[in-house]
Predict the structure.
Amino acid sequence: MKKLQQLLKNIDGKGYKAYKSIQGSYAFEQYQLSIDYVQGDPFASPSKIRVIIPNSNRPIKEEWKQSKERNIYTADHLARTVANAIEKESSFAKGSGKSGLLHIDKPGQEILERTAVQLNNKATVICLSIGLPANGRRINGKEAEKLFFAMIPSILKNSIFSVSDEELEKSVQLADQHIAIREEMKKQDWIAFVADGAILPRKSGVSNRPLQNAVPFESPKENGVTIDIPHRNQPLTGMAITKGISLIVGGGYHGKSTLLQALERGVYHHIQGDGREYVLTDPNAVKIRAEDGRQVTSVNISAFINDLPHGQDTKKFSTENASGSTSQATNVVEAIEASACTLLIDEDTSATNFMIRDARMQALVAPEKEPITPFIDKIKQLRDQLNVSTILVMGGSGDYFDVANEVIMMDQYKPYNVTEKAQQIVKDQPETRSDYHGELTTTMNQRTFLANSLQLQKGKKKKVQAKGLDLILMGNHSIQLQDVEQLVDSSQTRAIAELLRYLDDKGVLKQAKPLTELLDDIEAVIDQEGLQAFAPFPKQHPGDLARPRRFEIAACLNRIRTAKIK
């Protein structure tokens, strides 16, 4: 501690690169401070530090870490307390560039596996980014001293050292509850569960916090279920959606898309008080949408689209600028290739000609003149042959009543089970559709990404970098992820960018494994070694990373414009 203080005095006023001399580890009274990486310039990416707190100074009970989920929830809660303390700290050091910046990878409404806080057998490790203070490009040692000896101790005092055991216990209990709900879902073949009293709408288009004064969710009696979960006096009641084909219908602005959006986020767990903390969806559910203009490389979409003009091969379909229907067909096939078990679809973000073609249009346009086999003619095949369920928001076509196992109608934000009524309408108003057949198997799209797909070179250096939530820069190219809707945290995008670097550095793609196996291997590495396996400084500061699902990793690989496929 005193050594660091002396070093800062010695380099005060010197050129910024003299900060490199403080890299190292320093013993403070209650913790160890490790300065792992020092930025080369006040305007460059911030420096990386770790605060290592021995368990003797802030005990973390063994039972809070005994399962992977409990460990993740405990670390998540600690990261939130540190982030809140940073936000309340007003005595930021001053200076040029990023001087005085102090940052932890703050979690959002979802509870994700992260590298921000790590719990091991001996200590709690907190990873921070810090902007070392400067005046121009000269070191401001006094402000740096304030940062290390006043600001950081104050933040730790108001977070890690003040968080109560009761608070951490509640996080652990929520982990147990989520596990219990998931176990019941698996046992009962439910693909979704929405608790009574859940608040589904969000505050705004840019805020993922719950909307105040929203109508609480209330299950239709036909879908009502009861689950006994731990740490709760009363059983949890709510709506269960069973495997198969489920329609969500209703008039405009009655809550159809809001329910689907809650379900698409339900693949992740949410914090207490989010309103969606007891909204859970099959973790292998993937949101499918049209995505005009996306890159497609050698995907077999022939089950949905065939006999394109000019003889374009739809068994190995490639384009730099997909249409609405070809992109949506691609997204379905790629999701199944990545092992999706449930598809989530909203007609508002779908290509109309991909979703439906009614009997009258079928009568006018002969089948041999129409290359698209609409989704309605494949949805039962997906269910019966591939065991892939679908939850579909549909407000414009009653043709889907013919294929639905269940129909839920949203009316004034409340759900009603109208399955019997929909089935009666089918009997009273029968429709005759042409019957389509065609190959639809789990092996229809087994692709292998070749090693030269990853072109990281930019000039003399290799470069791959995440820019916010939905963009990755790789070499001279960009990977656009705007329409990958279940990518929910920019730290997931950073993790995917670091994964691309890892795949390139380790030559993983040279093994020429099919995509499904590659995704299995990536998940195994994360499970065994943690996200830090992909971090730029794995043995020191593991970066600001959050775990992405295999489906979002696949979505990124599938959108690489330099992809080469076997």
